[in-house]
């Protein structure tokens, strides 16, 4: 190999960064780049690849191309691998590793693909030398093989670990941004040009300081690869040691000059722990003189006077609120961003990365540019702004006075609270419904549980765009926080859609956060965060009270028992026996906990049965004085022997349940199917009384949430 020999190189990068990477490589090597299906390609001497490995702030990996073919087949792959003279790349006594991606009819697993490539390589060594290289995790040579749709590629990986691993990160805060994405954001915001003009940099939500550190390395002309312990090419037989030493020496010399000339760069965060980590990294890199991170909350931030700051760039990666329930807590954060931009940072450029346009709107400034990046799998947008004191904030789509609809919602909630005040005080109600889609623009249900609110969004009509529906939801949450004077963090937000099958029992995110509410002397455990429902159906409050009043000396059967609230009410009402049946082990355990909180204990008198209620009903031979039958509208759980449709199946369910009911007993049957019609045959066969109006509590009178019937045996 000579210094003038030309190679072809492939360079990968994060999604959305290809254009910036092309500009970067052309600047590093003075070469013309081309598009490659996973990034960028260029041609040049080996020293150019060394420069890219050392200086690229945006790349993930650099490969030296050995071969590529349009013949995508197993035979062509074998031919491509075996045609390489591997003695030129690794010693028979050395070590290697194969990274393989893609699929062929004969290769459906990447591990098997890597195994086949490795076998072909080592077979060549055995045939020539009677020995072969070992396989190692940190090898002398890493072979890269990829099968794409229209081409196959074979090369040598020059980088080893991905280039985003600079070597300076010891530990991180939550959700750190990758270093090469951070550098891409800085390049997209024109920071390299600003740094050359000695403009300053700020990150007011810096976390562990990735953006601050990358901004500092750019300003200091600090090659990002100087801190890495090893590159993949260092064990390769054609590695040009002198060229590599030359590239490194040049980089070290540039760093010395750059550090002396760099402008001030500051970071701030409300987490003192990550700030300490960021400053430790800056000390390690020798950048602490002009770069510093401070512990300060965004709400308390003002422009520092002890640093000579020339207006430059504020770039931050604020939280996005990927979970629906997280977003409302961020409204004030994004509004504060806009306040600081308008009030403190005249003449500064600003850029924010977020996945949520709704949150970005809260900044209150019109973006001058938007650019898409992917933070892992999350599609995000980099919004760029230029604020001046003359800028008036755009009206927030989420602020209390933003619209007539928002004001109408606020007035309606306050009116409902006033109407329910005396009733709540008289009944001692701790959990109740405040609002239930009273206004068409705010199709949500709001329930008050002690110091918490539970907000469920109904699916918006197809005529309402998704972003509009989310705006209205977050508007409501913001207003509710003001009305109830509780933190947004204590408002559980969920989206309720038509549920099918096992999705009705699906967990959202495990928090394990339970607390108790009291209802007519009965303690009941609720969980507002982990499940679609809370563990307590508030619209059945009156019926639970009726069961409690009529359970004295009764044998009570609770079918589809959910968390067993009817069983707990029956216990305190004096029931001599309760049997609770459900298909969910999770909810049966919850039901046991509820019973135990009220002085009961599982045993012969209080049984919990894990079973399909439909099957269990047909097999049961016991008799009961009071039966509660409250089935779901629909279920096709894999654990059931059949599907359940309450309209289709209610007649047979009731007939089976009535076989277990004593002569003087009563079956309480309810369901929440909107268009439910009770079978006429049941009315003829049994004594049926529609008690829906009596069963619906005051906080649900605005729209009947269920139908409820008392069914007794008819005697001539």
From TrEMBL:
GO cellular component: cytoplasm
Keyword presence, Secreted: no
Secretion signal span: none
Domain THUMP intervals: 48-158
Keywords recorded for this protein, A-Z: Cytoplasm, Methyltransferase, RNA-binding, rRNA processing, S-adenosyl-L-methionine, Transferase
GO MF annotation list: 23S rRNA (guanine(2445)-N(2))-methyltransferase activity; RNA binding; rRNA (guanine-N7-)-methyltransferase activity
Enzyme class: transferase
Pfam families to which the protein is assigned, alphabetical: Methyltrans_SAM (PF10672), RlmL_1st (PF22020), THUMP (PF02926), UPF0020 (PF01170)
Catalytic reaction(s) noted: guanosine(2069) in 23S rRNA + S-adenosyl-L-methionine = N(2)-methylguanosine(2069) in 23S rRNA + S-adenosyl-L-homocysteine + H(+); guanosine(2445) in 23S rRNA + S-adenosyl-L-methionine = N(2)-methylguanosine(2445) in 23S rRNA + S-adenosyl-L-homocysteine + H(+)
Subcellular location field: Cytoplasm
EC number: 2.1.1.173, 2.1.1.264
Keyword S-adenosyl-L-methionine assigned: yes
Family membership: Belongs to the methyltransferase superfamily. RlmKL family.
Main function: Specifically methylates the guanine in position 2445 (m2G2445) and the guanine in position 2069 (m7G2069) of 23S rRNA.
Listed name of the protein: Ribosomal RNA large subunit methyltransferase K/L
């Amino acid at each position: 190999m000579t210094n003038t020999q030309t190679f072809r190189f492939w360079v990968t990068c994060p999604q959305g960064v290809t254009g910036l990477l092309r500009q970067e490589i052309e600047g590093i090597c003075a070469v013309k780049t081309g598009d490659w299906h996973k990034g960028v390609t260029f041609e040049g001497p080996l020293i150019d690849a060394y420069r890219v490995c050392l200086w690229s702030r945006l790349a993930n990996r650099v490969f030296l191309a050995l071969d590529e073919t349009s013949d995508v087949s197993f035979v062509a792959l074998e031919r491509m691998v075996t045609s390489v003279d591997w003695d030129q790349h690794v010693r028979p006594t050395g070590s290697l590793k194969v990274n393989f991606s893609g699929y062929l009819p004969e290769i459906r697993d990447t591990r098997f693909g890597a195994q086949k490539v490795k076998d072909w390589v080592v077979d060549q060594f055995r045939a020539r030398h009677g020995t072969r290289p070992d396989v190692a995790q940190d090898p002398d040579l890493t072979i890269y093989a990829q099968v794409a749709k229209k081409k196959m590629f074979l090369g040598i990986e020059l980088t080893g670990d991905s280039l985003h691993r600079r070597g300076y990160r010891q530990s991180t805060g939550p959700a750190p941004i990758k270093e090469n994405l951070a550098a891409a954001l800085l390049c997209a915001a024109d920071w390299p040009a600003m740094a050359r003009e000695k403009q300053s940099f700020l990150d007011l939500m810096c976390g562990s300081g990735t953006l601050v550190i990358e901004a500092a390395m750019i300003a200091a002309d600090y090659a990002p690869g100087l801190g890495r312990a090893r590159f993949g090419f260092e064990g390769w037989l054609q590695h040009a040691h002198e060229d590599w030493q030359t590239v490194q020496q040049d980089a070290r010399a540039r760093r010395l000059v750059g550090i002396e000339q760099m402008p001030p760069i500051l970071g701030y965060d409300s987490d003192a722990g990550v700030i300490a980590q960021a400053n430790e990294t800056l000390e390690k890199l020798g950048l602490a003189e002009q770069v510093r991170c401070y512990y300060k909350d965004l709400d308390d931030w003002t422009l520092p006077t002890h640093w000579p700051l020339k207006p430059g760039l504020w770039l931050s990666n604020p939280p996005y609120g990927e979970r629906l329930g997280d977003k409302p807590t961020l409204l004030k954060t994004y509004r504060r961003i806009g306040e600081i931009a308008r009030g403190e940072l005249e003449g500064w450029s600003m850029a924010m990365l977020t996945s949520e346009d709704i949150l970005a709107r809260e900044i209150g400034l019109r973006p001058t540019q938007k650019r898409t990046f992917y933070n892992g799998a999350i599609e995000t947008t980099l919004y760029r702004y230029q604020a001046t004191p003359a800028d008036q904030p755009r009206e927030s789509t989420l602020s209390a006075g933003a619209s007539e609809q928002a004001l109408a919602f606020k007035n309606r909630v306050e009116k409902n609270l006033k109407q329910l005040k005396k009733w709540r005080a008289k009944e001692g109600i701790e959990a109740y419904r405040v609002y239930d889609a009273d206004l068409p623009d705010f199709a949500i249900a709001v329930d008050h549980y002690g110091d918490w609110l539970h907000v469920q969004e109904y699916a918006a009509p197809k005529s309402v765009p998704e972003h509009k529906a989310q705006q209205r939801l977050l508007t409501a949450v913001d207003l509710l926080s003001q009305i109830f004077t509780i933190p947004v963090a204590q408002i559980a937000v969920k989206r309720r859609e038509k549920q099918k099958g096992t999705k009705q029992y699906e967990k959202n995110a495990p928090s394990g956060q339970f607390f108790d509410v009291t209802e007519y002397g009965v303690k009941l455990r609720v969980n507002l965060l982990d499940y679609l429902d809370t563990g307590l159906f508030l619209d059945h409050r009156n019926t639970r009270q009726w069961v409690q009043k009529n359970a004295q000396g009764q044998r009570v059967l609770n079918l589809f028992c959910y968390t067993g609230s009817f069983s707990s009410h029956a216990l305190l009402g004096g029931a001599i026996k309760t049997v609770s049946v459900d298909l969910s082990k999770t909810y049966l355990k919850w039901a046991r906990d509820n019973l135990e909180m009220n002085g009961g204990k599982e045993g012969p008198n209080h049984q919990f049965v894990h079973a399909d209620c439909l099957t269990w009903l047909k097999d049961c031979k016991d008799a009961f004085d009071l039966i509660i039958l409250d089935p779901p509208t629909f279920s096709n759980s894999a654990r059931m022997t059949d599907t359940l449709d309450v309209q289709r199946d209610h007649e047979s369910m009731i007939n089976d349940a009535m076989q277990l009911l004593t002569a003087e007993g009563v079956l309480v049957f309810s369901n929440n199917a909107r268009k439910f019609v009770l079978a006429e045959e049941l009315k003829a066969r049994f004594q049926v009384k529609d008690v829906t109006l009596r069963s619906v509590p005051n906080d649900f009178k605005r729209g009947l949430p269920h139908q409820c019937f008392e069914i007794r045996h008819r005697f001539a």
